[in-house]
Every structure is written in structure tokens, then in C-alpha cells.
């Protein structure tokens, strides 16, 4: 169940992030912005795997399984809060 939920959340956040970038980044630098985003997100995978392995080795396997979803939840809430603030600013400027 967790894996299916994670796959859905990951898909939705990737789509939302791409749509946000397409709306806010000027077209002449959109390719570079998307490339930088991919580099940061995909480049963090081996670092996170190494950190998770070290954490599991030192504290037990349960700790990374608690820390990872917690960090993901914090990041998702921060993204939604920033997106809502940006949407409110855009609406206010359009009025």
C-alpha cells in the first residue's frame, strides 16, 4: 500500500513541479532550469541512499524508514505553502 501511495504522490509532485516551472521560468531559460532541477533531484538519490545506509547501520533499519517519509512530508507541505503564496501573489497582481 505504501509503495502505491508513494508512486502516486511522486507522480503528482513531479507534474506539479514541472507545471510550476513552465509557468514561472522565462521560456529562453526553461531548458536550463529543467536541467538544473533534474540534476538536483536525481543527483540527490545516491547521496540519500548513502545517508540512509549509514543511518540504518548506526541506528537500525526502522529509523530511515521513519526519517525519509517525514522529510518528504515536510518538503511537500513547504512546496504547497510556497505554491499557494505564489498563486495568491499572481492573482493579486492580475487584479
Structure commentary:
This protein is mainly α and 95 residues long. Helices cover 91% and strands 0% of the residues. Helix 2 packs antiparallel against helix 3. The chain is elongated and about 55 Å long. The model has no long low-confidence stretch (mean pLDDT 86).
Largest β-sheet summary: none
Radius of gyration: 17 Å
Order of helices and strands: HHH
Tell me the helix content: over 70%
Keywords:
mainly alpha, elongated
List the helices and strands and how they pair.
Elements: H1 2-24, H2 30-59, H3 62-94
Helix pairs in contact: 2-3
Task: Provide a brief overview of the structure.
By secondary structure, this protein is mostly helical. The chain has three helices and no strands.
Amino acid at each position: 500500500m505504501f509503495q502505491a501511495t508513494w508512486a502516486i504522490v511522486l507522480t503528482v509532485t513531479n507534474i506539479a513541479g514541472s507545471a510550476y516551472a513552465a509557468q514561472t521560468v522565462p521560456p529562453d531559460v526553461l531548458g536550463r532550469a529543467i536541467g538544473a532541477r533534474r540534476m538536483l533531484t536525481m543527483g540527490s538519490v545516491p547521496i540519500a541512499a548513502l545517508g540512509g545506509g549509514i543511518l540504518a547501520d548506526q541506528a537500525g533499519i526502522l529509523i530511515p524508514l521513519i526519517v525519509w517519509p517525514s522529510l518528504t512530508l515536510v518538503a511537500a507541505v513547504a512546496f504547497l505553502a510556497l505554491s499557494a503564496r505564489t498563486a495568491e501573489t499572481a492573482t493579486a497582481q492580475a487584479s
